[in-house]
Amino acid sequence: MAAALELRRRGHAVSLLDPGPVPHPLATSTDISKIVRMDYGNDELYTALGEEAIAGWHEWNSRWGQEVYHETGFLILTREPMRPGDFEYESFALLKRRGHDPQRVDRAILAERFPAWAADQYADGYLSTGGGWAESGKVVALMAKDARAAGVALSEEVAVTGLLEEGSRVVGVVTAGGDEQRADCVVVAAGAWTPTLLPHLGDVMWAVGQPVLYFQPPNPDDYRLPHFPLWAADISRTGWYGFSATEDGTIKIANHGPGQRVHPDASREVAPQEEARFRRFLRDSIPELADAPLTGSRLCLYCDTWDGNFWIDRDPEREGLVVATGGSGHGFKFAPVLGGIIADVVERKPNPHAARFAWRSRGEPTSEAARYTG
Questions:
Q1: Is 351 exposed, middle or buried (0-12, 13-18, 19+ CB in 10 A)?
Q2: How many Cβ atoms sit within 10 Å of the Cβ of residue 121?
């Protein structure tokens, strides 16, 4: 959606095809919330991109006349004292060097300011004041409204089943209904469906399912700001993160970990044993939440690349095809800036970030800094 909007603003005729209603009920972005952060260890590029994105989120709030991005701060905790080389330490240090003011949190501060947490379990951490969360499903709906108003031809419930090729050139797509849609350039931004639609990329990216659970505590005010902000609990070692209670009292908790490889069209049911795993974490870290009723769950799909970086480039063997995918579980926060990067790639314009996301051969497996790899 971001790419379609930006390309249309640059004067291109743009058709956007989506297999479901928009927002798509199975899309990763169709949820109540997504983290917006600039905490990326010692990674200067993603930290700078996070800064740009947060400025973009504020601009969107102003343009839309409503707060869809909530700058609540981001509480990052670690069980061990922060040390050089750790995700938490390096994130804290880089934010300081870039002029931000993250607030150090020790056990005493945690117990005093954030009493829902078991302070004896977390030795160190910080509150990153520049960050928060976005109402992701609502954001997609607003972007779709903007796209239509800008003249994007948005076709819903139109599934693309393959590329239309003439020799080595991609000249369009074929839909499930057998229609051919021709274009000078085809941008595939299909998220977890990308390696299914483009099987030649199956060696460098794949779909992974991550569990997300929703709880309803009897005392939701105990889990709201200022004493219960968006949080990550030793995330680079455990994968745990979560959100403040919503207006209706719902608390979303998820795991940013290795996940399990899945087909994007397979069942999205969370394995029964996951609830017990989540409750063990809660009993240890947020004890009073451990017995809260479970009100829902979903399997959040990532399109993982082998190195955790986005994949935004022209296919070197298929002229006319641009692939924009590889969110690897940390893409939505960058929505305000991704459209510009993709549009620059389409137009073959230089972009300071694009080299990191360029077409590449598979190497040693890595991940983004916050990702727990098991």
A1: middle
A2: 16
Q: Cα–Cα distance between 111 and 102 in angstroms, integer?
A: 18
pLDDT tens for each residue of 64-120: 999 999 999 999 999 999 999 999 999 999 999 999 999 999 999 999 999 999 999
Q: Identify the bridge partners of residue 74 per DSSP, sorted by sequence position.
A: 128, 230
CA 188 to CA 62: how far, in whole Å?
30
* Structure tokens that stand for 25 in this block: 């009920």
> Which distant-in-sequence residues (6+ apart) come within 8 Å of 190 by Cβ?
160, 197, 198, 303, 325
What is the spatial distance between Cα 163 and Cα 182, in angstroms, rounded to a whole number?
A: 10
Given a contact cutoff of 8 angstroms between Cβ atoms, the answer to whether 372 and 258 are in contact is: yes
What does the DSSP 8-state code read for residue 186? Answer: E
Amino acid occupying residue 175: T
In whole angstroms, what is the distance from residue 329 CA to residue 208 CA? Answer: 9
Closest CA to 26 of 193, 158, 175: 193
Q: What is the token pair recorded at 78?
A: 């670690």
CA 18 to chain centre: 19
Find the helix or strand (DSSP H, E) in which 165 lies.
Answer: strand 160-166
Residue 186 tokens read as 């085809």
Q: What is the pLDDT of residues 323-341, one digit of tens each?
A: 999 999 999 999 999 999 9
Q: Please name the residue that has the structure tokens 């769950």.
A: 297
